[in-house]
Specification:
By secondary structure, the protein is mainly beta. It is built from no helices and 18 strands. The protein has a 4-stranded antiparallel β-sheet, with no helix packed on it. The chain has a 4-stranded antiparallel β-sheet with strand order 9-10-11-12, with no helix packed on it. β17 and β18 (about 190-195) form a beta hairpin. The protein starts with 6 loop residues before the first strand and ends with a strand.
Amino acid sequence: SGGWDDKLFAYGFHDGVLSKASEIIVHKKAKKDEPSWHMGGIAFDAKDEFAYVAAQYGNRLVRVAMEDKDSTITTVCAFKDDHAYPYKVVLGPKGKRAWVSLWGKSAVADVDLATGNFSLVQTDPHPNDMVLQRDGSRLFVACGNTNAVNVIDTKTKKVIEKLDGALFPNALEGSTPNALALDAKGKMLLVANADN
């Protein structure tokens, strides 16, 4: 993402070499002093036809038509709280739903991509990175203002477990988990901490 520039940069990759980036403007400012939307996390559908982008200061989830010559931009949904700060986007296995971490709202939005309707699942403070189990049954959410990774059951839409990512038992908060990955078999969760 192009962050404050409100753009996406698309690079070709051939024979181990990146091509010059093409730019897709996601938000055109109506006025010069209008604030940036600040593009955050990006997720692509299975056919790479659409990119779903968290516009952090625009407080919305946008869809970018990648195959469209003009890269048509539409707002899937807007989060009415000015301090929601959508951070990361993860698509469900069937591509009909998106999970969006709302850093400023201590919640994850479960978004219906066809209608834009969404519901919220409350989490620990500052949810940021997320990874979905391959079968789509559990969503792991790093919560940066804690030591915790919240585990959401995607059917019940509830936090069913909190994993402690601290380096030692009973550590004070401050590990700040901020990156997650599952191994190839989906049996081991890897957590990167920004602090401690």
